[in-house]
Amino acid sequence: MMAEVSDVSFAAAITGLAGMTPVRLAAVMAGRTPAEAWRLLDAGCHPQDPGGRFVRAVRRTDPAGEGERYLQAGIQVLLPTSPSYPTSLVHDPGAPAVLFARGATDCFADRRRVAIVGTRSATPYGRAVASELGGELASAGVTVVSGLARGIDGAAHAGAVRHPSAPLAPPVAGVGTGLDVVYPTSNRALWETIATTGVLFSESPLGTPPLPRVFPARNRIIAALADVVVVVESHHQGGSLATAEAAARRGIPVCAVPGSVRSRASEGTNGLLVDGCIPVRDAADVLVAISLARSRKDAPWPSQQTGTLVAARGRDRTRGDTSSTATGADGRRRAKGPERVPDASTAERVVWDAIDDVPTTIETILLRSDLSIAVAAEACEHLVSEGFVRAGAGWWAKV
User: Fold this and answer.
1) CB 155 within 8 A of CB 183
2) In order of start, what are the domains of the chain with their CATH numbers?
3) Most exposed of 9, 170, 332, 354 (fewest Cβ within 10 Å)?
4) Highest-confidence range of 226-230, 296-300, 345-349, by mean pLDDT?
């Protein structure tokens, strides 16, 4: 009976286990077929589950039933080895071990793609610009990628699908919830239009609600799917800057729409421009950026842009304390002692260098290290066991 269950059914079942995060999933699946990973979890001897935390959940779950549930919902379960898995994600350091899709997964394979992102608290100016860019780029045959969030994301997609040429440029969305959970509900009609004319992607299993942790994680997927990322409006520390940072670390050009210096909604985008990101006045500017990105000529690459994105998130935020003093619990500055650093493996040292003294998420670690999720997760585990870092719910920090 077990042999008759498909790998995608096992993959869907593993992803849906209570407590299974994208990071844990990548570690569990690394180097194994979903069926092999499932059997090891079921037997309580999976090296990534030494305490057997998933044994009970595995034995209560029917993989064949899970596969059928996705089939009935019209959701495809994609593995990196699947022909329908997006090629731009296959070799990405943050590639989801399992990706869910609704729509035509091959609709954008050979197309130019631009991610248009920005604040949920958009101004009328920002929404108008995003909608115009979406429509004009769709008319030029460019696929618009976004997160289907309220504000700039939704406006960009609305402009793209309303344009008469939209069927020629299928839209793509990367969402944080399960593909059966529309969020925000005000975008329901847009959600259905994209599923019909383009494709929706998510790494979250069916039924996943709009939890805060799922949205930062999906930003890397949006960035990796694009040739260029355009930030229309962003506050001083807006979440869309995480997408911009993910893009810059992948060598994907980041563009920004200028806004009023009196508008708080443009603080982040104006900061990007001050530090050298590509200014966008209209769709023609975006088309030029895409052409440069595809030809790999004259585009500003991560060495120029990474510092920019840190600065745009907050000009009062430091990039690391390089002084010889540290702040104690009483707020006073004290001399630092000799710094203890890991020397066990290259991966552990790379991950250690990517972790801050304050809680650092796995997404940030991946972006800074360019390691795969599986390698980074294993390195984090070793660093914790050796006492170099402490761990919390989805974060790590230097001791």
Assistant:
1) no
2) 2-103 (no CATH), 113-313 (3.40.50.450), 343-398 (1.10.10.10)
3) 332
4) 226-230
